Amino acid sequence: MRVAWIDRARGLALCAMIVFHFSYDLSFLGYVTWPVSGGTGWRVFAISIAASFVALAGVSLQIAHGDGIRWRGFWRREAVLAIAALAVTLGTGWAMGAPVWFGILHAIALFSLMALPFVAAPTWIVLGAAAVTFAAPLILVSEMFSHPALYPLGLAPEVRPSLDYEPIFPWFAAMLAGLALARHVPLPRQAPAGDILARMGRHSLAIYLLHQPILFGGLMAYGWLRAV
């Protein structure tokens, strides 16, 4: 059984992500002059997409383990996420020359582990932790966090440029918000929905891993053919 609106929400987030990445690829390859990598509107768009994925991961974690941690399923999912995150790091390093060290998949894998103690915690504690996590970059940024090993924290005054970076502070707040949301919205379970958004949502990881090689590879091939 599935929660259809979660599948559809993931599918919608995937569509937005594909639009953003296709626009970024067009700009990166010089086909358009859109300020995708620096424009405020584009930045807000990217942040909203990433926050949606992290929050939905929190919703799913609460649904799956709210009545008790199912360790076998949890570690299986963690292993898949870790392998996928490693593939992203290696793939971006090879294709773009700038590896993603702590992107959305790295974040969701770590945040899922960090969130386990909060799954059974009272909602006020979950929301309080979310507020502290969100506010931390405003008050805790320091040179002492500049060591590369502390890169996932997000508290260094300057961080290395990255194509994708969702550090613990403030992004773990979105995961915690997802836990709280799952407790206070209707979550009817039903047979898997057959619409396109729901189908996309059920295969979100595969789509995430494959869409950029297809988009970027297609644009590279187009450029090569145009030059022939």
Quick description:
This protein is mainly alpha-helical. It has helices spanning 4-28, 40-65, 71-96, 104-119, 123-139, 168-184, 196-202, 204-227.
Amino- and carboxy-terminal Cα gap: 52 Å
SS field, number of helical segments: 8
Mean pLDDT rating: 94
Based on secondary structure, the structural category is mainly alpha
Describe this protein's structure:
- With 228 residues, the protein is mainly α.
- The chain has eight helices and no strands.
- The longest helix is centred in the N-terminal third of the chain and has 26 residues, at 40-65.
Tag the structure with descriptive keywords.
228 residues, mainly alpha, 8 helices
What's the layout of helices and strands?
Elements: H1 4-28, H2 40-65, H3 71-96, H4 104-119, H5 123-139, H6 168-184, H7 196-202, H8 204-227
Helix pairs in contact: 1-2, 1-7, 1-8, 2-4, 2-6, 3-4, 4-6, 5-6
